[in-house]
Every structure is written in C-alpha cells, then in structure tokens.
Design brief:
single chain, 159 residues, mainly alpha, Growth Hormone, Chain: A, 6 helices
C-alpha cells in the first residue's frame, strides 16, 4: 500500500487525531434509528418498509468491503479517508432531493451511499489508527475508537 507512514506524534496531537477520526464515522452510524419514525410519516410507509433503512445502510458494508480494499490499494489510506468522506457527503446530499420529493427510494440510495463511504472510511481508518503512534499502544488506540463509537451512540440523537 502506498501512503503508509508511521507518524511520530506528540501525545496531544495523537489524542486530537483520535477524537477527530472517531467523530467522523461514529455519529452517523447511530443516526439511522432516529430517521425511521420520520421517514415513516413523511413517506407514508407500510409497517415493514422502515426496516429497509437499516438494511440499506448495513448491506453497503457487506457489498463494499472488498471493493474498499481495492480502492485503498489504489489511493492509499489518507486519500482513502478523504474519498470516504466525500462519498458520505454525496450520500447526505441525496437526502435533499429525497426530502423535497418525499422519495423513500432516494433516501435508501442516499443511505447506501453513506454506508459505502463509511465502509471505505473504516477500512482506511483502522490500519491508520494502528500506525499513527507507537506499535506498543496500537491496541489501546483501537479500543479508544470503540469507546468513541459507543459515546457517539449516546450523543448522536441529541445532535
């Protein structure tokens, strides 16, 4: 893989990077559940249709896992993170016409695209987290990212 470098980061710089990276992908994962009641009303959904929100989001992880690794071989981790963020922005922008037209299919497509961006982002971030500091504390950094994810689950509905 290209663009792999081990950074010599100071403690505060490393903590800042972990917080920023953790906040990028953790909050958006937890917001899906709060979308369901609003989409049910806005799109006049049948009882089974709101569950497609979760399906559309998480099926992208399954479908895009292997293509994400190929993309990262081409772009490298840092550019892969940027690409993942751009894909997430594209998915979120699709929500605008979906809301204006109350098109449930567009919402699902937007969620799939956001999930695709998150898949790429997480595929790039996990190895990046292990490389941005000393190898002796790599497991700690991965654990901190897991804690950030759980904390995001608490604050995301309020945001």
């Amino acid at each position: 893989m290209n663009n792999i470098t081990v950074a010599n980061n100071s403690g505060s710089n490393l903590q800042t990077q972990l917080v920023i990276i953790g906040s990028f992908f953790s909050c958006l994962v937890w917001v899906n559940g709060t979308l369901i009641p609003y989409l049910r009303i806005a799109c006049e959904l049948k009882d089974w249709q709101p569950y497609l929100v979760t399906f559309a989001f998480y099926i992208s992880y399954t479908i895009m896992a292997l293509p994400s690794s190929k993309i990262l071989q081409y772009t490298g981790m840092i550019n892969g993170i940027r690409t993942g963020l751009l894909i997430m922005v594209l998915g979120c922008l699709i929500f605008i016409p979906a809301a204006l037209t109350r098109s449930y299919l567009l919402f699902l497509i937007g969620l799939f695209i956001v999930g695709t961006g998150l898949t790429l982002l997480q595929t790039a971030i996990n190895p990046h987290i292990t490389l941005i500091g000393p190898s002796s504390s790599a497991a700690q950094r991965i654990s901190i990212m897991g804690i950030c994810n759980k904390f995001a689950g608490i604050i995301a509905p309020f945001i």
